Amino acid sequence: PKKSEAASAALGRSKGGLTTKVHAAVDALGNPVHVHLSGGQEADCKHFDKIVNALPAEVKAIVADKGYDTDAVVERIEQHQAEVVIPSKSNRKEERQIDENLYEDRNKVERFFLKIKQNRAVATRYDKKAACFLAVICLAAIICWLKSQVSTRSRCAEQGATTKRGG
User: Fold this and answer.
1) CATH number given to 3-166
2) pLDDT per position as a tens digit, 122-160
3) Are 52 and 24 in contact (CB under 8 A)?
4) Average per-residue pLDDT in the chain?
5) Is residue 12 within 8 Å of residue 42, measured between CB atoms?
6) What dihedral do alpha carbons 138, 144, 146, 147 form, nearest 10°?
């Protein structure tokens, strides 16, 4: 594909051929707040503004991996008046101290990706257009969210039934 077509399709050349990166923000429960696509060769930090603009104003901390460790990203998080929880890259002159307990929450994003990739159409991109692939990701995210709601309610119902019988 031509460069303009590849960019609009969120495709980029990397070691694995034509690839797409999925950028996601999740809330404290691991539910998706924002999903964004980019070409596979593009740096993560270039797409941070699109993610942070979709976050609610009351966010207290933003947790991300080393791919987002740039001065511009850190400055943008500070403008958002949130705590920066991004480990420093190895080439950073001054290493930033982060809250390790908060950084452990980054696995919620990784678990979100594992859940949506249970859907074969997400794990292996079949869609030619970025909008169609994004729709498939959103549909997979909705299914995961609904499953979490059902399992949470059934656990609450079981606990309530146990309490009623015991009390």
Assistant:
1) 3.30.420.10
2) 998 888 889 999 999 999 999 988 988 887 666 666 666
3) no
4) 85
5) yes
6) 160
Domain residue ranges in the chain: 3-166
Length of the chain: 167
- Structural contact between residues 12 and 22, judged by C-beta atoms closer than 8 angstroms: no
Is the per-residue pLDDT at 166 higher than 70? no
The residue among 149, 123, 147 whose CA lies nearest residue 136 is 123
User: At which residue do the structure tokens 């990166």 appear?
Assistant: 21
CA–CA dist 145, 111 (Å, integer): 12
pLDDT > 90: what percent of the chain?
Answer: 48
Contact predicate 96/84, CB 8 Å: yes
CA 26-99-62 angle, 5° bins: 30
Distance CA 153, CA 130 (A): 34
Q: For residue 132, how far is the Cα from the chain centroid?
A: 18
Burial class (CB in 10 A: 0-12, 13-18, 19+), 29: exposed
